[in-house]
Amino acid sequence: MRFYSLDKLINLHDGYRKVFKIDLYNLILLQVAGERYLLESTCPHRGHPISESDIDGSRLRCSLHGYQFDIATGELMVATEAPCRGLKTYELIYQGTEIGVML
């Protein structure tokens, strides 16, 4: 595994959303209410970009079909069509002034 830096901590703020492509991983880094989350960046239902999703409290709502996922765990909370798996989540790693992930 290797550390991949995603951004400097000074750049993060509530409402922050940024998509990253690292090898075969498509990720999105979010900050909501002071908490940071790293998730896969496409909805597992139909591959719609999560970057276009709405965030309501602790839930992320896919803007294509309305599927809702727990932002902290990735768990599927609401399926509007056929059920699908939850979003994959990744542990954030802090190194000095940077935030990243081990992949």
From TrEMBL:
<dbReference type="GO" id="GO:0051537">
    <property type="term" value="F:2 iron, 2 sulfur cluster binding"/>
</dbReference>
<protein>
    <submittedName>
        <fullName>Rieske (2Fe-2S) protein</fullName>
    </submittedName>
</protein>
<dbReference type="GO" id="GO:0046872">
    <property type="term" value="F:metal ion binding"/>
</dbReference>
<dbReference type="Pfam" id="PF00355">
    <property type="entry name" value="Rieske"/>
</dbReference>
<keyword id="KW-0479">Metal-binding</keyword>
<dbReference type="InterPro" id="IPR036922">
    <property type="entry name" value="Rieske_2Fe-2S_sf"/>
</dbReference>
<keyword id="KW-0408">Iron</keyword>
<keyword id="KW-0001">2Fe-2S</keyword>
<dbReference type="InterPro" id="IPR017941">
    <property type="entry name" value="Rieske_2Fe-2S"/>
</dbReference>
<keyword id="KW-0411">Iron-sulfur</keyword>
<comment type="similarity">
    <text>Belongs to the bacterial ring-hydroxylating dioxygenase ferredoxin component family.</text>
</comment>
<feature type="domain" description="Rieske">
    <location>
        <begin position="4"/>
        <end position="101"/>
    </location>
</feature>
